[in-house]
Design goal:
Blueprint lengths: L12 E4 L5 H12 L3 E6 L3 H13 L3 E6 L5 H15 L4 E4 L15 H29 L2 E6 L3 H4 L6 H21 L4 E8 L6 H4 L4 H8 L10 H12 L10 E4 L4
Parallel strand pairs: 1-2, 1-4, 2-3, 4-5, 5-6, 6-7
Helix pairs in contact: 1-2, 1-9, 3-4, 4-6
Length: 255
């Protein structure tokens, strides 16, 4: 991809949550290659986060690491403050961090797993967006891009209904925030990935046999890549998407 073809990215201050691997890492590296200043949020995977940070630095990109437990309200609230203190402002928020906490059949699912999954995938993106919205409102410019999932469309599996519910809620919030952002040129959209080749599938118990069966249900008959999603995020963050808001973009090989 010729990243120079995407205007409006250079110099923008971008926070990417969950940037230590998978989709988040690809988004961070791609935006950095276009000249964005990138905040790499991570929590547990410090080793991989440092790899992404080093890779960006080697390409002469500008980035900093931000370790934050998004399930902890105090830490979560401090993330935006730390980002702004480091970079002097914020232009674009990519709410990418997410996952299934408590990979159990819904008949056995406990309330702690339910609460934690919704907190990570729905509550955290909302309150991070709330904080950046106030800043973007003053500067009359901003972009918020939420990473959803086809689970919101299909309802998830018996062991990920809580995750699907959280992502469906995230899409609803996307639409609501977009409506409120219109007067201030704050554009809010979501990207809905399909089956993407990341460690996510191993974490929810999908072995190679299950993965082959799942891939066979995709019209394009292949698994997606993190770069497939990052490319859509880049487009939405660029000036090419200045007339797009309140949309859910499905990148799923035809599902």
């Amino acid at each position: 991809m010729k990243t120079k073809m995407f205007p409006g990215i250079k110099g923008k201050k971008v926070l990417v949550t969950g940037a230590s691997g998978g989709i988040g890492a690809s988004v961070a590296k791609l935006l950095s290659s276009c000249g964005a200043v990138v905040g790499l949020h991570y929590y547990q995977n410090e080793r991989e986060a440092n790899k992404i940070f080093t890779a960006i630095k080697k390409q002469r990109g500008k980035a900093e690491l931000f370790k934050t437990n998004l399930l902890n309200p105090e830490e979560r609230n401090g993330l935006i403050k730390s980002f702004i203190k480091t970079f002097g402002g914020i232009d674009i928020l990519i709410n990418n961090a997410g996952g299934v906490i408590g990979n159990q059949n819904f008949l056995e699912l406990d309330e702690n797993s339910w609460d934690a999954t919704l907190s990570l995938n729905l509550k955290a993106p909302f309150f991070l967006s709330q904080k950046v919205f106030k800043i973007m409102k003053k500067q009359k410019w901003g972009r918020i891009i939420n990473i959803s999932s086809v689970a919101a469309k299909f309802g998830g599996s018996p062991s990920s209904l809580h995750y699907a519910g959280a992502k469906a809620g995230l899409e609803a919030i996307t639409i609501g925030l977009a409506r409120e952002g219109v007067p201030y040129n704050i554009l809010v959209n979501a990207v809905r990935p399909g089956v993407i080749g990341t460690p996510f599938h191993e974490k929810i118990g999908r072995d190679s046999v299950k993965m082959r069966k799942r891939i066979n249900t995709i019209p394009l008959k292949r698994i997606g890549t993190p770069d497939d999603i990052a490319s859509m995020v880049l487009y939405l963050a660029s000036s090419y998407a200045d007339f797009i808001t309140s949309q859910i973009f499905t990148v799923s090989g035809g599902e």
